[in-house]
Amino acid sequence: MIETPRIIFKYSSIYDQNxxxxxxxxxxxxxxxxxxxxxxxxxxxxxxxxxxxxxQILEELSRxxxxxxxxxxxxxxxxxxxxxxxxxxTLPVYDRCPDDFVDTLIHELIHQCFTEDGNAKRLKKVxxxxxxxxxxxxxxxxxxxxxxxxxxxIYLKFFDEKRLIRDIQSINSPDHxxxxxxxxxxxxxxxxxxxxxxxx
Length: 200
What we know:
200 residues, 4-stranded mixed sheet, 2 domains, alpha/beta, 4 strands
């Protein structure tokens, strides 16, 4: 059995208030910002949702990439509104669909897996290969090509293609969309093979 980290969902009122202040300053069309109580209730729901298949997903990420999880636990901060990112792992409340939270969490956890102690060094050759192969693309696109290949596998193993397509269609970033276009055109299995063949 593959060892996987425990995902610890956290709420920090200071962190949340900082995001609330930034959102009010930066966003022209201010969305209703969830209250602390709403965020904490949301965390309880998302914890239950993640617990259904979270461990199996983390095991599968390790298995298909050949990378080990070195952390025993990973803190995931949840705030009312933010741009999701992997370090410190931070996600917002998604009003529209609970699955969006899980799908974004998986995306950011793939980033975490790629950058964990020990793994980043092993991926040096992989990064060089993808940088050369897709040298005409932006750095953001190149980074996300193997990530989206891994995520495609997870979508199709644990969920379905409809959910994968919904995620792709919701993307606004041209760089992220381009990486998805490349993965879809070349086949995620082929990109995964190129990835694993180059891991030291």
